[in-house]
Task: inverse folding
């Protein structure tokens, strides 16, 4: 299959990086577009869309194989067309992810906290690793071994996720306020790696800030918007899982997360709809 890539589209598309790996891009495509197509994309449409992102068909096949092994996709033929469908678990995860990725919400200290306290018997030590991984992905910080904390608004999501993965029997969740003794501002840097967050947000802004400036001066075509938007969203969707929306009053100012969020919000407003038009035209032929 031959894909025509204009010079302007290449200019709009960031250079390849770790978060432009084919598996990550495919998950983004399914999260954005497959759900409006009954959670399914044909092989032909997927290969064409990935070619628009300069990913060849062999890399697509390899990535799909890994996603199938992980239970994210499964093969399904519809109306004589071969394709891949999302698993039920993947649909649930992507739906939950929407609230994280596209939210415009940040906690305040007055909201309070949710504290996860867990103890895992040695015979189930594999669950200990999984529980820590799930809490990290939910944005919890570590207060002490077996005691993790997050802004209060994460509580409902934590209850759902931990229950779905069979981990609720090992953990208790408590709603809390900090009443002493050190200030929360002095402790938040111990509970979360703020330097890592600052670096990640800064890298996002450095990479996509120039694109945000360009698209305000010259709107992109639908194809160019697609080629630019998918890497933007693929890079961004990892960040809200590292930062659970910590209160700004507890963070160093200026906070790089505010700047990065403004870049993403602007690009999302400019690129999401024309990118969808291009993807829909390809998917529906």
Result:
């Amino acid at each position: 299959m031959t894909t025509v890539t204009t010079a302007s589209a290449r200019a709009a598309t960031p250079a390849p990086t770790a978060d432009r790996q084919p598996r990550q891009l495919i998950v983004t495509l399914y999260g954005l577009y497959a759900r409006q197509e009954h959670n399914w994309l044909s092989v032909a449409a997927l290969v064409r869309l990935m070619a628009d992102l300069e990913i060849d068909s062999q890399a697509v096949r390899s990535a799909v194989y890994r996603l199938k092994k992980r239970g994210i996709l499964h093969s399904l033929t519809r109306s004589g067309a071969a394709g891949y469908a999302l698993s039920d678990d993947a649909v649930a995860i992507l739906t939950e992810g929407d609230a994280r990725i596209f939210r415009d919400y940040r906690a305040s200290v007055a909201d309070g906290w949710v504290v996860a306290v867990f103890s895992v018997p040695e015979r189930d030590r594999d669950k200990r690793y999984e529980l820590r991984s799930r809490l990290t992905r939910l944005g919890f910080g570590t207060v002490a071994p077996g005691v993790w904390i997050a802004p209060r608004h994460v509580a409902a999501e934590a209850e759902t996720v931990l229950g779905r993965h069979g981990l609720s029997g090992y953990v208790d969740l408590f709603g809390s306020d900090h009443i002493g003794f050190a200030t929360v501002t002095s402790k938040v840097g111990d509970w979360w790696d703020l330097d890592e967050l600052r670096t990640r947000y800064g890298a996002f802004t450095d990479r996509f800030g120039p694109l945000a400036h360009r698209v305000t001066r010259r709107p992109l075509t639908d194809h160019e918007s697609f080629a630019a938007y998918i890497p933007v969203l693929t890079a961004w969707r990892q960040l809200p899982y590292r930062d659970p929306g910590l209160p700004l009053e507890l963070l160093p100012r200026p906070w790089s997360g505010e700047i990065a969020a403004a870049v993403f919000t602007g690009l999302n407003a400019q690129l999401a709809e024309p990118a969808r038009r291009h993807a829909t035209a390809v998917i529906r032929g």
